[in-house]
User: Which sequence fits this backbone?
């Protein structure tokens, strides 16, 4: 059997043996007792009894023997099973130990260094796993053996001793296996260090290999160091002259390679020395690498020595080559000096310019040669110094090569010095030739200037142009001569300075020769000055003639303009007859033009009508007769022309000397023309935008209108199609801009004459100022001239000034006359205008007075017709019908009054500024009419207000009677509101007005048909369920404190309690009168606490105690809790959704005050400080934490033993730990350690809480609390202050102050029923759940749908600010609250969403208060009427 089954059977045997032993002992004692008792029997009986008892005793002993044998067999079987199981456990442990040995075999020999790091780590991981498995098996086996040893110790006998010996042997085998595992574990633990040795050796080998590679690279680049070739150098120079030369570049590359190799060997040496000094496991392996390092370093040293030798040879070659190049350049430049000297050998035969150029080229070549020779000398000296620093092998050969180059350079310098000595004579000869040539050129230029000036000195008369041309020619010649003389002087002086730099002999001779050309140039300069004076005199004479001629022309033009202006102004200055006639002509032509347009008749036919037939000319008498006839017409009654004005105008129309007007002349007069006041563009189309500009019209241009002016809508300006008289161009012009700029003005002979006079005077004044300014300016310019032609000209100009001044004075006098005449003309025009205005005002006044009087009469008639019906409607049999007729009559009368009053006010507003004349008289008449009509308005308003008030009262009474009848029926029938609604709505969503009326008509009572019509008028659109329920339920509000009693009779009842002011009660039975005390009483239920009783409505002195109230509702503004009990901490039934409406069933009433403990501290998670609730009536929010706080930085390790474990990480001061196991003492190190888990990152391990010197590293903190329930962190000690954030369950909070006790007022609790699903429960009345009225305001635009379904057809969009009346309780649809509403704006009925799925508030509670009830109706009913 398996061990467990064996042990179970053995235990059963042992239990049975124990029971048997007990029974045997009892039986043995019992028999012994009975044997004693049997001895007291009679002999025969006693003996018989004793024999039987002894027989039983013998039988009992046999049982005892059998029981002993059974126990021995059971013990043997038990020992055998235990030994077998112990063997199995030990064998398993030994097998696991063997597995560890096999996994760790790779670590026993040198195979470790031949394996990759990955293989080694893999083997280490496998060994660790095998060791962990073996340790677990060994531990279980040891526990098994230990338990069995404990069991064996309690047993007695040889079997127990044998079992104990066997178990000791098994324990020894386990110890051997344990030692084997520990051995291989230790071996596996050295893997990291052995891998580190391997890594160190590999790194050292790699570094040495890299250093050796650097040596190889050095040898390779050293091979490139050879003799530098000129071709390669030249090619590199051409490629980039700014870069380093080839050899230098190669040397730098080689030196860099050497430096890299040296640095690499230095690094390898330091690394190996460092590893050897560490004296670790790697020392022996590293020391083996020292010979390899020495050999590599020797190879590097040899390579470096060879490199240095090659560099020196290369440097020598470079020095010699560069020096050779410098010397060669110097020699070439000296040769160029000899070549430049050749052209000067025959200098006498060449020109001066050629000789000068050759001399300059020679000087330039000598300077270049000197520079190159000097530079070469300096370069050779520097290279000699550099050669001295070279090695002994190349120093001597380098010095010899440089010495040979120095000799070549000295020879070139000597040849250059000889060439320079012959330069003085050549230069002196060239200077002489240059000076002579420049002086000769100057003499030629001066002679030409003298010839040009002689032509001006002749006495022949020359034209101004010829004189100007001659003066310009002479001036140009003189400038050229002066420039030639100055150039010659500059050259001579320059060469004089050059001569001083020649040899003494050549310099002395040349300086004496140069002085003579200087004297010649001085003479030429004097001659030139004389000619300049002659030219200046001639120019002055010419200028004087021109000035006199220009001034004379200006004065003559001034006289002409004065004469023209005087002639133009003559009609004004001599009398106003022509101008007034022209003005009357302009007005009459305008009148004729308007008349022709009105009758739509061709101008030719119209003229024939005026003249008395076709082909006839118009005489003066015919014209006067026709104009007089026109003035009698109604449309021209505001125009008046006297007969003399008409005749004067006709004379202005006809040509001079003629007495008749022809058809062509009349049509010419009818042309509609404009004059340009401001420069304007002519375009090809009416539209300004996109139109093409044809041309610009200048000021005073005249254009003929081809069409009537039209408004250009886009720009808002008037434009006209016209033709320019100047060039016949046609296009569109703007009359006036939208900024007030006037571009065109109507043209007439009158305005043209005025403008012509103004322009003539302006031109005259401008000419006078111009002439005077010219004379004064020229005289000012000639002030400095004292003699000569210009001085005489100045005197002539000053003589002309009085003549100009006289003309200016004449212009001023003429302007004054014109201004005076224009002033008189303006007075005449104003008088004419005033006369015309008086005629127009008189006509307008008569028309307006007639209209106002007719309107006043109509208003009086309507008012007198409506008043009888308005005063007697209440006595009619059908007062409703009579009231409606009276209202209609009053409204019609009020409309007539309003119409008349509006007309009178409009006329008075127009006449506001009229203070005299016909309009002022009209204004007084209109004021009298206004007073009369205003009294009619007051009378109508008074009767309409009275009628409206009486009808409202009648409607209210009728509605109260209807509602009362409906309530009485509901109470008598016992029907619930739901049943009655279903009956009346007939399955529809609303109760129709017709159904309700028919139902009420069937009820017993004295309701008349007209009362039903009037009382139910407000329900024309039907009654929703919400409105109907409110109708059936009556609520009263307490307005004065009153007792609620137990019975109807006041004397027989007991007071239950007092009703408080503002408390709402539900009426359960209609009011009745208590005749014994004369009080009206109602049975009601107090919503605050559901107490039912009787309350007095009005006291016997008329004091009201109850007033009509509304059914109370609340609405959840945001998600809130619906609780199961009155207490706020009672269980929650469900969450109230935002927008959900509840009807009040009980309450509101306050909870008792409660004490709250508040503490201040800091949240450990983010360090935020504030106040939190520690405890309130519902229980604790925080509890003292069982966590330990780290007081000093300490490591958390993987195991209890610090030596065996590894550090997981360092714990920071203030960090918290969760205790996993109680503290244990490390007796070896005298430490106290615990197993814990960090709250920061959930790391588990062992931590020292107390050191061997008594230092505490972690300890409990009674100021640290753990959050057991979610609570808010607030800024102040008082509850409800600003919330910083919410502390979550399990979060830590460190207390710094408190606890402090705060007494909090109890919450206001209300029991309600949700209109959404009928759920009942308690909620807290607060900012979250507020009183509600069936009225919403649209907060954000949303759709109004036909049905509850979100996908239903949209009726229209609700706009923000719209007011909506609630027709039914909100319902849930697709997780959103929807409500049926009617829009006040247009009466649209549909469903709208209260709050969107993203939290957007679409409908918010209407801020408007519900109107006070004057009857038992409620706000929804009144709203439906609206």
Assistant:
């Amino acid at each position: 059997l398996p061990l467990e089954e064996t042990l179970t059977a053995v235990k059963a045997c042992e239990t049975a043996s124990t029971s048997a032993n007990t029974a045997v002992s009892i039986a043995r004692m019992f028999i012994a007792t009975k044997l004693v008792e049997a001895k007291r029997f009679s002999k025969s009986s006693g003996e018989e009894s004793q024999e039987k008892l002894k027989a039983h005793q013998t039988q009992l002993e046999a049982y005892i023997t059998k029981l002993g044998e059974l126990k021995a067999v059971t013990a043997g079987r038990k020992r055998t099973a235990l030994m077998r199981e112990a063997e199995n456990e030990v064998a398993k442990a030994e097998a696991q130990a063997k597995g560890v040995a096999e996994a760790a075999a790779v670590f026993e020999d040198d195979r470790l260094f031949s394996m990759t790091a990955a293989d080694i780590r893999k083997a280490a991981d496998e060994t660790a796993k095998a060791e962990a498995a073996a340790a677990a098996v060994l531990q279980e086996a040891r526990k098994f053996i230990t338990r069995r040893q404990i069991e064996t110790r309690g047993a007695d006998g040889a079997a127990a001793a044998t079992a104990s010996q066997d178990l000791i042997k098994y324990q020894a085998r386990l110890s051997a296996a344990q030692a084997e595992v520990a051995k291989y574990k230790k071996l596996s633990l050295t893997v990291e260090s052995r891998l580190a040795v391997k890594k160190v050796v590999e790194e050292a080998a790699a570094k040495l290999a890299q250093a050796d590679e650097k040596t190889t690279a050095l040898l390779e680049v050293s091979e490139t160091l050879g003799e530098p070739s000129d071709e390669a150098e030249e090619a590199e120079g051409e490629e980039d002259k700014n870069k380093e030369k080839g050899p230098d570049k190669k040397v730098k590359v080689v030196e860099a390679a050497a430096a890299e190799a040296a640095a690499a060997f230095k690094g390898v040496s330091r690394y190996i020395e460092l590893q050897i000094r560490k004296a670790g496991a790697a020392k022996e392996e590293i020391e083996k690498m020292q010979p390899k390092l020495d050999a590599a370093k020797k190879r590097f040293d040899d390579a470096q020595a060879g490199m240095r030798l090659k560099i020196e040879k290369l440097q020598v070659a470079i020095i010699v080559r560069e020096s050779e190049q410098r010397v060669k350049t110097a020699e070439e430049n000296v040769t160029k000096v000899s070549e430049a000297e050749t052209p000067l050998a025959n200098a006498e035969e060449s020109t001066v310019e050629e000789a000068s150029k050759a001399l300059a080229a020679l000087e330039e070549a000598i300077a270049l040669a000197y520079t190159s020779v000097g530079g070469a000398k300096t370069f050779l000296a520097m290279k000699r110094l550099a050669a001295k620093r070279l090695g002994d092998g190349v120093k001597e050969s380098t010095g010899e090569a440089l010495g040979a180059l120095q000799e070549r350079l000295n020879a070139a310098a000597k040849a250059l010095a000889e060439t320079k000595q012959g330069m003085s004579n050549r230069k002196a000869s060239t200077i002489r030739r240059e000076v002579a040539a420049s002086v000769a050129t100057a003499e030629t230029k001066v002679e030409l200037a003298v010839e040009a000036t002689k032509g001006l000195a002749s006495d022949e008369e020359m034209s101004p142009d010829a004189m100007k041309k001659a003066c310009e020619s002479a001036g140009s010649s003189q400038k050229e001569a002066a420039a030639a003389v100055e150039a010659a002087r500059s050259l001579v002086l320059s060469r004089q300075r050059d001569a001083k730099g020649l040899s003494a002999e050549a310099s002395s001779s040349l300086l004496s020769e140069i002085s003579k050309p200087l004297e010649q140039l001085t003479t030429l300069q004097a001659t030139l000055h004389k000619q300049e004076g002659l030219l200046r005199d001639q120019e002055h004479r010419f200028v004087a003639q021109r000035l006199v001629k220009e001034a004379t022309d200006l004065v003559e033009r001034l006289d002409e303009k004065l004469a023209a202006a005087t002639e133009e102004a003559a009609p004004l200055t001599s009398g106003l007859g022509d101008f007034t006639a022209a003005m009357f002509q302009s007005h009459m032509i305008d009148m004729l033009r308007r008349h022709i347009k009105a009758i739509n008749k061709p101008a030719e036919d119209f003229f024939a009508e005026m003249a008395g037939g076709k082909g006839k000319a118009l005489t003066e008498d015919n014209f006067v007769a026709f104009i007089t006839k026109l003035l009698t017409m109604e449309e021209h009654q505001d125009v008046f022309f006297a007969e003399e004005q008409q005749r004067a105008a006709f004379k202005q129309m006809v040509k001079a000397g003629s007495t008749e007007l022809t058809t062509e002349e009349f049509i010419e007069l009818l042309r509609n023309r404009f004059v340009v006041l401001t420069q304007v563009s002519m375009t090809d189309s009416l539209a300004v935008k996109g139109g093409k500009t044809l041309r610009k019209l200048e000021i005073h241009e005249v254009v003929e209108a081809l069409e009537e002016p039209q408004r250009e809508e886009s720009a808002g300006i008037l434009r006209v199609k016209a033709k320019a008289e100047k060039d016949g161009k046609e296009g569109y012009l703007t009359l006036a801009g939208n900024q007030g700029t006037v571009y065109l003005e109507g043209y007439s002979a009158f305005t043209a004459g005025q403008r012509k006079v103004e322009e003539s005077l302006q031109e005259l004044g401008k000419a006078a100022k111009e002439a005077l300014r010219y004379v004064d300016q020229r005289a000012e310019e000639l002030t400095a001239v004292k003699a000569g032609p210009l001085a005489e000209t100045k005197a002539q100009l000053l003589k002309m000034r009085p003549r100009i001044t006289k003309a200016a004075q004449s212009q001023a006098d003429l302007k004054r006359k014109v201004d005076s005449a224009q002033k008189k003309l303006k007075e005449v025009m104003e008088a004419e205008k005033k006369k015309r205005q008086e005629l127009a005002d008189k006509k307008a006044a008569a028309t307006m007075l007639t209209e106002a009087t007719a309107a006043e009469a109509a208003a009086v008639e309507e008012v007198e017709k409506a008043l009888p019906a308005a005063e007697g409607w209440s006595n009619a049999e059908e007062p409703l019908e009579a009231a409606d007729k009276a209202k209609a009559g009053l409204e019609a009368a009020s409309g007539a009054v309003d119409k008349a009053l509006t007309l009178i006010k409009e006329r008075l507003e127009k006449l506001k500024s009229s203070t005299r004349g016909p309009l002022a008289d009209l204004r007084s008449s209109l004021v009298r009419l206004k007073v009369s009509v205003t009294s009619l308005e007051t009378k109508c308003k008074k009767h309409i207000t009275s009628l409206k008030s009486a009808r409202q009262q009648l409607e209210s009474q009728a509605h109260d009677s209807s509602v009362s009848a409906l309530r009485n029926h509901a109470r008598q029938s016992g029907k619930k509101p739901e049943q009655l609604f279903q009956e009346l709505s007939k399955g529809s969503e609303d109760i129709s007005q017709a159904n309700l009326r028919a139902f009420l008509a069937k009820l017993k009572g004295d309701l008349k048909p007209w009362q039903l019509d009037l009382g139910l008028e407000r329900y024309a659109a039907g009654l929703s369920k919400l409105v109907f329920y409110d109708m059936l339920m009556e609520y009263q509000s307490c307005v004065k404190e009153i007792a609620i009693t137990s019975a109807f009779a006041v004397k027989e009842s007991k007071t239950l309690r007092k009703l408080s002011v503002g408390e709402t009660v539900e009426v359960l039975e209609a009011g009745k009168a208590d005749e014994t005390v004369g009080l009206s009483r109602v049975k009601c239920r107090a919503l605050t606490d559901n107490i039912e009783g009787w309350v007095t409505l009005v006291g016997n002195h008329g004091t009201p105690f109850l007033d009509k109230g509304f059914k109370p509702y609340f609405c959840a503004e945001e998600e809130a809790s619906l609780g199961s009990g009155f207490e706020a901490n009672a269980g929650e039934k469900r969450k109230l959704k935002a927008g959900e409406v509840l009807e009040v069933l009980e309450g509101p009433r306050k909870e008792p005050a409660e004490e709250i403990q508040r503490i201040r501290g800091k949240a450990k998670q983010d360090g935020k400080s504030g106040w939190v609730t520690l405890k309130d009536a519902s229980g604790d929010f925080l509890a003292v934490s069982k966590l330990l706080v780290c007081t000093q930085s300490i490591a958390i390790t993987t195991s209890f033993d610090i030596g065996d474990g590894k550090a997981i990480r360092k714990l920071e001061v203030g960090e918290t730990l969760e205790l996993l196991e109680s503290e244990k003492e490390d007796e070896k190190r005298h430490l106290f350690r615990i197993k814990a888990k960090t709250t920061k990152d959930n790391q588990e391990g062992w931590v020292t809480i107390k050191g061997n010197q008594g230092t505490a590293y972690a300890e409990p903190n009674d100021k640290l609390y753990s959050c057991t329930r979610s609570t808010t962190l607030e800024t102040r000690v008082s509850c409800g202050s600003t919330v910083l954030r919410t502390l979550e369950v399990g979060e830590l909070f460190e207390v710094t102050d408190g606890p402090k006790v705060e007494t909090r007022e109890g919450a206001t609790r209300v029991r309600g029923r949700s209109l959404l699903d009928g759920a009942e429960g308690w909620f807290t009345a607060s900012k979250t759940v507020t009183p509600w009225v069936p009225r919403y305001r649209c907060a954000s635009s949303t759709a109004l749908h036909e049905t509850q379904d979100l996908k239903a057809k949209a009726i229209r969009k609700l706009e923000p600010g719209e007011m909506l009346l609630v027709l039914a309780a909100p319902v849930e649809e697709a997780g959103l609250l929807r409500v049926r509403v009617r829009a006040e704006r247009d009466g649209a009925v549909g469903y709208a969403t209260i709050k969107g799925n993203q939290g957007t508030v679409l409908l918010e509670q209407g801020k408007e208060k519900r109107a006070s009830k004057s009857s038992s109706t409620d706000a929804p009913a009144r709203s439906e009427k609206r």
